[in-house]
């Protein structure tokens, strides 16, 4: 039996290795990029490549062929611009219109834990109320838009801070003059876990859900960067603690671990540094 065809909107740092992993499992994959220079590499990887901008300010973009799939994975963050919320909503209004004319019946939306305010406690999927960050506001609006649609089912995955490969703390250490809020707990997740979680959602047909996805261990910034300094040989910058407790949130991923019977590849961000 042929597996579902999957379209990935956004074959970048996460989308590209995800596409390769899906192809290795015999899924036919279409992928999009906004950079024409990436098309050949995508084609070489076995991806059917498309240029897709999803720009509401450009009329007439036809993504009909790209959306001739069973499953759509959306992996495009809000653009950094003054009208970030309004623009992201417009982008997805046009995408939802196109989905209504497509065979797609399942959507996986890659979101972020920025949808949660710093509540000074553990947060679960029900705590996404009035995000402080504009990017979180944009993502939460789009989550709601997609979940309200009846022509397809949407699952939202809210990833924590993405780490692994070239996204390592050494780069941050090299340009730090001081480490602010060293007692603030971190919500992180390795890219390998992100890829595997998405694949498990597809395999288990977990549609119509909202999941947090963060390492179950939440190291303090001081401990994470101290270990990174030891491993890299880069000096740890001076710690800059504020008088008032730093705002924080601890993102709980128990729902995801239970629904997928999922065990993290890298449960502890400090341990994965080596």
TrEMBL record:
Listed Gene3D superfamilies: NAD(P)-binding Rossmann-like Domain
Pfam family name, one: Epimerase
GO molecular function annotations of the record: aldehyde dehydrogenase (NAD+) activity
Residue ranges annotated for the NAD-dependent epimerase/dehydratase domain, each copy included: 12-204
Listed GO CC annotations: cytoplasm
SUPFAM superfamilies: NAD(P)-binding Rossmann-fold domains
CDD domains listed in its UniProt record: SDR_a4
Protein name per Swiss-Prot or TrEMBL: NAD-dependent epimerase/dehydratase
Organism: Chlorobium phaeobacteroides (strain DSM 266 / SMG 266 / 2430)
Taxonomic lineage: Bacteria, Pseudomonadati, Chlorobiota, Chlorobiia, Chlorobiales
């Amino acid at each position: 039996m042929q597996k579902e065809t999957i379209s990935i909107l956004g074959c970048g740092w996460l989308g590209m290795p995800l596409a390769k992993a899906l192809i290795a499992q015999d899924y036919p994959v279409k992928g999009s990029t906004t950079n024409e220079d990436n098309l050949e590499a995508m084609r070489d990887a076995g991806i059917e490549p498309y240029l897709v901008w999803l720009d509401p300010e450009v009329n007439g973009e036809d993504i009909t062929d790209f959306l001739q799939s069973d499953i759509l994975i959306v992996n495009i963050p809000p653009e950094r611009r003054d009208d970030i919320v309004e623009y992201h909503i417009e982008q997805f209004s046009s995408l939802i219109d196109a989905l209504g004319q497509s065979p797609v019946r399942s959507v996986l939306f890659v979101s972020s834990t920025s949808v949660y305010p710093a509540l000074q406690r553990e947060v679960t999927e029900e705590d996404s109320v009035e995000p402080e960050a504009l990017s979180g506001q944009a993502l939460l609006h789009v989550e709601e838009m997609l979940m309200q649609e009846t022509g397809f089912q949407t699952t939202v995955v809210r990833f924590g801070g993405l780490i692994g490969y070239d996204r390592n703390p050494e780069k941050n250490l090299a340009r730090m003059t001081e480490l602010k809020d060293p007692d603030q707990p971190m919500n992180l997740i390795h890219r390998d876990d992100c890829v595997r979680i998405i694949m498990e959602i597809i395999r288990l047909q977990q549609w119509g859900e909202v999941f947090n996805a963060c390492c179950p261990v939440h190291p303090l910034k001081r401990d994470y960067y101290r270990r990174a300094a030891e491993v890299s040989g880069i000096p740890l910058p001076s710690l800059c603690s504020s008088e008032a407790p730093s705002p924080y949130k601890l993102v709980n991923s128990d729902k995801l671990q239970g629904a997928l019977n999922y065990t993290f590849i890298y449960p502890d961000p400090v341990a994965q540094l080596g």
